[in-house]
């Protein structure tokens, strides 16, 4: 059964019941489920918004998500323990079981969100993609670290997951720092058991802490991280480079020009941890490399 159904089951009825009626052929293409207060529910598929009612004509509750019901959805997705997700919510999202990220919008004050006006449920799937020959050759020759760059929805996590699988198949020692539980899609190791990938995973651990722990005791050849961007991330990468670690990581960046214009990304590149950058195409072709830039 497609992961879509696991996500919608986390919602309260009757909306959950209606969304579970979606045809499996359509469900497998749904990337996101968007819920907005006093507006219709939408699917995102192929990077485009589609009203849920288009595929669920008999459904009533998808026609308009009431404000009070949206609050109920938020609380149930949080398992009625909002405080447990405070750190992630401060960044505008939280991640539920299975690596599914829930984007949150609304009125926010110092203590957190007081009103929720939008929820965006991203369906996490164990997807991999084809690696271009230059990427495989780059990894085989041990040419250095690789930075994967792209806009949101361009398949950065999918690409990194494919790199982990490739290195696992070549018997390299790999540590994955999966801060949000999205990269390896598991809080309890079940994804690894289901799809055996020979690597060591730190889940729900900050990248800075995970990198430090991996350096102390796991002796990896590669460390893989999703979405670098903070000063603490850059400092941790610098320590890893000093220890001879090769990093494979992703960043939010859609062009070589932006890579140098954004101060934090420029500092990240200046660490010397990355010898090349693979820019991904975009939402229409997730995981496809459109440009390869050498930094050395």
Summary keywords:
12 helices, 13 strands, alpha/beta, 7-stranded mixed sheet, globular, Rossmann fold, 296 residues, 2 domains, Beta-Lactamase, 6-stranded antiparallel sheet
- Gross morphology is globular
Total number of distinct structural domains: 2
Using the 3D structure, state the CATH architecture of the largest domain.
3-Layer(aba) Sandwich
**CATH level-four homologous superfamily name of the largest domain:** P-loop containing nucleotide triphosphate hydrolases
CATH topology of the largest domain: Rossmann fold
Number of helices: 12
Main β sheet profile? 7 strands, mixed
Q: What is the class of the largest domain in the CATH system? A: Alpha Beta
The percent range for helix content is 25-40%
Distance between the termini: 45 Å
Helix/strand structural class: alpha/beta
Number of E-type strands: 13
Q: Can you list the strand order of the major beta sheet?
A: 9-8-10-11-7-12-13
What does this structure look like?
With 296 residues, the protein is an alpha/beta fold. It has two domains: 3-122, Beta-Lactamase (2-Layer Sandwich), CATH 3.30.450; 133-294, P-loop containing nucleotide triphosphate hydrolases (Rossmann fold), CATH 3.40.50.300. The chain has twelve helices and 13 strands. Helix 9 runs parallel beside helix 10. The protein starts with a helix and ends with a strand. The model has no long low-confidence stretch (mean pLDDT 91).
């Amino acid at each position: 059964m497609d992961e879509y159904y696991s996500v919608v089951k986390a919602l309260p009825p009757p909306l959950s019941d209606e969304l579970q009626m979606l045809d499996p052929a359509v469900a497998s293409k749904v990337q996101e489920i968007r819920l907005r207060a006093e507006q219709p529910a939408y699917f995102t598929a192929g990077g485009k918004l589609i009203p849920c009612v288009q595929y669920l004509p008999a459904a009533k509750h998808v026609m308009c998500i009431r404000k009070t019901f949206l609050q109920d959805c938020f609380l149930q997705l949080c398992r009625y323990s909002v405080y447990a997700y405070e750190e992630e919510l401060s960044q505008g999202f939280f991640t539920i079981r299975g690596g599914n990220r829930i984007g949150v919008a609304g009125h926010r004050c110092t203590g957190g969100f007081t009103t929720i006006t939008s929820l965006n449920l991203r369906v996490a799937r164990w997807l991999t993609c084809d690696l271009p020959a230059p990427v495989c050759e780059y990894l085989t020759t041990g040419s250095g670290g690789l930075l994967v760059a792209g806009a949101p929805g361009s398949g950065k996590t999918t690409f990194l997951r494919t790199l982990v699988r490739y290195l696992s198949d070549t018997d390299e020692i790999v540590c994955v720092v999966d801060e949000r539980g999205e990269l390896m899609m598991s809080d309890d190791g079940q994804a690894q058991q289901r799809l055996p990938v020979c690597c060591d995973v730190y889940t729900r651990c900050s990248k800075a802490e995970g990198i430090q722990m991996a350096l102390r005791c796991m002796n990896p050849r590669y460390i893989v991280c999703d979405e670098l961007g903070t000063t603490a991330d850059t400092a941790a990468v610098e320590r890893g480079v000093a220890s001879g670690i090769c990093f494979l990581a992703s960043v939010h960046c859609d062009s070589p020009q932006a890579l140098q214009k954004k101060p934090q990304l420029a500092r990240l590149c200046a660490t010397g941890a990355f010898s090349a950058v693979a820019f991904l195409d975009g939402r229409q072709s997730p995981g496809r490399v459109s440009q390869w830039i050498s930094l050395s």
